[in-house]
Amino acid sequence: FQVKSENKKAIWDTEEVPEGSEFGDTWDPREQPEYQILFKQSVGTEDVFFGMSGKDPSTACCEDMVIKINLPETKYSDITLDIQDKVLDLRTPQKKLLLHLPYPVDSKNGKARFISEEETLEVTLRISRKFDFTNF
After folding, report:
1. C-alpha separations of 133 from 15, 53, 57, 63, 130 in Å
2. SS3 readout for 47-92
3. What is the phi/psi pair of residue 98, to 5°?
4. Which N-terminal residues, if any, form the signal peptide (predicted)?
5. pTM of this prediction?
């Protein structure tokens, strides 16, 4: 038996704690807003008409993830958004969303825009993928 941790009283290592667990407030009474996760891919005529690149309509061939979050009666200035590689954490005075993302993303280079007419926050994140035969 070998103890990995430098602190012998610790019951787990920091590597064993899943990313995003620090946001999991079970006592928080704010309700979760409605949201959608959509996937986006860049295609050209060579993909659509000729199928030359080998891309298909599956999420495995998508480059971006778009998360649309409905935030009725919310002002842009009230939104707090924190994005990590596998977690999106959104908080407003009335709503709270802790979303474990289906794919790891580039958390440093995302875009967010608030569409006030629709009362929707649209977050676009680049999916971080390992290069393989589909993603090259």
Report:
1. 30, 10, 15, 14, 10
2. HHHHCCCCCCCCHHHCCEEEEEEECCCCCHHHCEEEECCCEEEEEC
3. -115, 110
4. none
5. 0.71
Of 100, 108, 106, the C-alpha closest to 32 is: 100
Name the residue type at position 31.
Answer: E
- How far, rounded to the nearest angstrom, does the alpha carbon of residue 21 sit from its chain's CA centroid? 15
For tokens 């295609």, name the residue. Answer: 43
**Proportion of the chain above pLDDT 90, given as a percent:** 43
* Alpha carbons 53 and 49: distance in angstroms, whole number: 11
Residue 3: its pLDDT value, please? 44
- C-alpha dihedral over 83, 135, 68, 17, to 10 degrees? -30
